[in-house]
Design brief:
The structure holds three protein chains of three kinds. By secondary structure, chain A is α+β, with helices and mostly antiparallel strands. Chain A contains ten helices and seven strands. The longest helix of chain A is centred in the last third of the chain and has 13 residues, at 168-180. Chain A is elongated and about 65 Å long. Chain B has one domain. Chain B contains five helices and no strands. Chain B has helices at residues 3-28, 35-40, 43-54, 58-84, 88-114. Chain C has a domain at 74-135. Chain C is 69% helix and 0% strand. In chain C, helix 3 (58-85) packs antiparallel against helix 5. Chains in contact: A-B, A-C, B-C. Chains A and B meet through helix 10 of A and helix 1 and helix 4 of B. Chain B: It comes from Thermoproteus sp. AZ2. Chain B: This is Succinate dehydrogenase.
Chain lengths: 237, 116, 140
């Protein structure tokens, strides 16, 4: 039976080391997450892996596979050349154990950009008015609403690696998504947050965030759209 | 000054330098010297000393280009340092360093061009 | 333990725009120090004749050629960045279950500019060092 060699970067709280596992696979049409769970079940139950849905919708299993940040559940062995898989925890994050990282800083940055509709809702409470949206208005932000907040873009961003204050592609794409929503009236409030060296202006267009995004959200492009809106002094997105 | 305004100035200065270098090499210098000579000489010897020898009044234009690239360079250096600043205090220090460099280096660069 | 490498991440190449970012950064820093310290401060205030004579040595020519090539690339990529940030180069991302395509990769204007940029960069990479090495001293 063919075998794959999996090299995993382990961390136990004090020291880090690379550990190798050999796994027999009947077919290459399985995911890297399946291989890691086989290792946990059959060889080393101490291997810490975060996962949940196994179908690229929860964003839990983000890790660096063969030098590229990916979702383990979405990466099939057919996409990997050769029989050696190198797995390490997501870059730019504090490692808790093995492949599990602390993603709380990502969510703190996300909360800073106010990822919700900002609007005076008196109209809804005092009348039967609904906040409708046409198909064209939906298209303006719909792509960026597909974000599953997996943090792969934050792992891939070279600016996040050196500048901890940078909000990052995840938060900035969310800032665009909520500001471009026709139901929202909070662009001017969010513009003050993103128009800073912590916000969009620290983005240097490395664009790796969009290259690794598993949902095609293209956060890099959202940042450029925010920049264009700021430079043109747009009152609405 | 908002970061967006600083970025706008940064980009405007870059555009100014790109356009004016092209204007000097392809527009102004060929008024005095054949274009083939401009395009076959070592560019380091053409600009800025060569341009000043051709027409000393062009030194004023060269000084504006020098002010533009030096300001752009200092703001770019600020962008590089801001990637390394981990705290707000460090960022404030970077901003003060930028102001100091602008106040000291830009006049020096303009003076250096004018005394050629 | 913190995964990732700090400033070393600037040199990791995953996509081609990352290469542009790395060269933009290196070229900007090199030109800044070359121009300010060597060309301006040294030339104007220490010894102009030393600078002129060093410029004609092989080491001086290599530094000057590197400066010009970096200037060409920095200007071309910088102009691309200006066009993207002002929203002149447009596109829209394509979401696909198999292969997502980011907006800038779908943009025809971005593709055209990229091709032009690479052609001009290759010409500059050959022509500018040639001029520095074999071009005459400008004597109007």
């Amino acid at each position: 039976m063919p075998a794959v060699t999996v090299k995993v970067k382990r961390f136990d709280g004090k020291r880090s080391w690379w550990q190798e596992y050999k796994v027999d696979v009947k077919s290459r049409r399985i995911s890297v997450l399946d291989v890691l769970l086989r290792i946990k079940e059959e060889q080393d139950p101490t291997l810490a892996v975060r996962y949940s849905c196994r179908m690229a919708i929860c964003g839990s299993c983000g890790m660096v596979i063969n030098g590229v940040p990916r979702l383990a559940c979405q990466t099939l062995l057919t996409e990997i050349k050769g029989d050696e898989i190198t797995v390490e925890p997501m870059w730019n994050h504090r490692v808790i154990k093995d492949l599990v990282v602390d993603t709380e800083p990502n969510f703190q940055k996300l909360r800073e950009v106010k990822p919700h509709i900002i609007r005076d809702v008196k109209e809804i409470y005092e009348s039967d008015k609904e906040f409708g949206q046409t198909a064209e208005e939906l298209d303006k932000y719909y792509n960026f609403a597909y974000c599953i907040e997996c943090g792969l873009c934050m792992a891939a961003c070279p600016v996040v690696s050196t500048n901890e204050r940078f909000l990052g592609p995840m938060a900035l794409a969310a800032a665009y998504r909520w500001s471009a929503d026709s139901r929202d009236r909070g662009w001017l409030e969010r513009a003050k947050i993103v128009d800073s060296d912590r916000g969009v202006w620290s983005c240097h267009l490395a664009y790796t965030c969009s290259a690794v995004c598993p949902r095609g959200v293209d956060p890099g492009f959202a940042i450029q759209l925010l920049k264009a809106a700021l430079l043109r002094r747009a009152k609405r997105l | 000054m908002s970061e967006g305004t600083i970025r706008l100035i940064f980009l405007a200065l870059a555009l100014y330098v790109i356009v004016m270098i092209a204007v000097v090499f392809l527009g102004l210098l060929p008024m005095y010297v054949p274009l083939s000579e401009v395009l076959s000489s070592n560019p380091i010897t053409v600009y800025p000393e060569g341009v000043a020898k051709v027409n000393p009044t062009l030194k004023v234009l060269e000084a504006t280009i020098a002010a533009a690239w030096s300001t752009h360079g200092i703001l770019g250096f600020r962008r590089f340092l801001s990637d390394l600043a981990k705290t707000e205090r460090a960022m404030r220090a970077v901003n003060w360093l930028t102001v100091a460099l602008l106040v000291v280096l830009v006049p020096i660069v303009i003076y250096a061009i004018m005394i050629i | 333990m913190r995964a990732g490498m700090g400033a070393g991440e600037w040199f990791r190449l995953i996509n081609y725009e990352r290469l542009y970012f790395m060269i933009q950064r290196i070229s900007g820093l090199y030109m800044f120090f070359y121009l300010i310290f060597y060309r301006v401060l040294f030339d104007a205030f220490v010894s102009p004749s030393l600078v002129s004579s060093f410029d004609l040595t092989p080491a001086g020519k290599v530094l000057a050629a590197l400066f010009l090539v970096f200037l060409a690339f920095h200007g071309l990529n910088g102009f691309r960045i200006i066009l993207i940030e002002f929203g002149v180069i447009r596109g829209w991302p394509l979401r696909d279950p198999i292969k997502n395509v980011p907006g800038l990769r779908r943009s025809k204007s971005h593709l055209v500019y990229n091709i032009l940029m690479i052609i001009v960069a290759i010409i500059a990479l050959i022509y500018l060092p040639y001029l520095v090495a074999f071009g005459g001293v400008f004597r109007p």
